[in-house]
Design a protein that fits this description.
The complex is a heterodimer of chains A (about 100) and B (about 160).
Chain A lengths: L13 H12 L4 E3 H10 L4 H8 L4 E5 L5 E5 L2 H10 L14
Antiparallel strand pairs in A: 1-3, 2-3
Helix pairs in contact in A: 1-4
Chain B lengths: L10 H5 L13 H11 L7 H8 L3 H14 L2 E6 L2 E6 L4 H18 L3 H18 L10 E2 L5 E2 L2 H10 L1
Antiparallel strand pairs in B: 1-2, 3-4
Helix pairs in contact in B: 2-4, 3-4, 5-6
Chain lengths: ~100, ~160
């Protein structure tokens, strides 16, 4: 957690959620649903549940022209603030392990 | 929400879907692996996982990982018989590639993600080195020719608590 920042506004995505937001943001804020679900599963939660928890005005399902479902980060400032809060914007020291 | 209710992406948005770094480096195995690793540096990566997410062969993934190891962007360790790779977050290449990842959509959409990331990086990593005067509030401090103090132990104490 970044000690320099206050508790941001809006729904708290949690550390794992902030990691997912960072992953999505660094992929142009847009990925296929199956890629997002696989990523979230690695961190032990479901992308669908995550979207339900934080709200579709923050991150939403959308569709490509040929009908493929994607997940799109909508509210980037909200994501930025929580990523900074959890120190995952550009992490510069390791304080976690997933093995 | 049914599929019919979902917002449809614009043609421009769709163009960048699955393009590592917005297409800047093409769609090579190297670009895909680097984008995946940089996007989540908190994870330990096995080659098999990268084969699955990129759709490339195990041979080409191993070749890229070997190169990235040599370049110092990642490090590895053995868990049983299998190697596991992780991003060296202390590498400047990692920070630069993170900023680049934020810059690509910023240029397209006029957002400010890269600047926000740089500002956070400056405050949390660089500020103490680049703004020592902000913490130097004693007559004992001499700014030139280098940042020195009559009492070095005092400098270290103040630095850590700033």
């Amino acid at each position: 957690m970044n000690k320099y920042d206050n508790h941001p506004a809006g729904p708290d995505p949690g550390l794992d959620g902030a990691v997912f937001l960072g992953w999505l943001k660094k992929r142009g804020s847009l990925r296929k649903v199956k890629d997002c679900e696989r990523k979230c599963m690695e961190n032990g939660f479901s992308a669908k549940e995550f979207i339900k928890k934080v709200g579709q005005e923050k991150i939403r399902f959308a569709m490509t022209g040929n009908g493929n479902k994607v997940i799109q980060l909508v509210e980037k400032p909200w994501a930025d603030q929580w990523m900074i809060y959890y120190d995952v914007e550009v992490p510069h020291h390791r304080h976690w392990t997933h093995l | 929400m049914t599929k019919e209710d979902l917002p449809v992406l614009t043609a421009e948005e769709e163009m960048y879907l699955n393009e590592p770094y917005g297409g800047l480096f093409g769609n090579s195995v190297m670009a895909k692996v680097v984008e995946e690793l940089v996007a989540d540096p908190t994870m330990d990566y096995r080659p098999k996982y990268l084969v699955d997410v990129t759709g490339n062969s195990e041979g080409s993934i191993n070749k890229v990982l070997k190169k990235l190891l040599k370049l110092g962007l990642i490090e590895n360790k053995m868990t049983g018989k299998h190697p596991v790779y992780r991003v060296r977050v202390e590498s400047k290449k990692f920070a630069a590639l993170s900023f680049l990842a934020y810059a690509m959509p910023d240029d397209r959409k006029g957002t400010d993600c890269m600047n926000m990331a740089i500002s956070d990086y400056y405050n949390s990593v660089l500020r103490e080195d680049y703004e020592p005067q902000a913490i130097a509030n004693s007559d004992n401090w001499v700014i030139h020719p280098g940042i020195t103090s009559a009492d070095e132990s005092e400098y270290r104490t103040i630095s850590r608590s700033a």
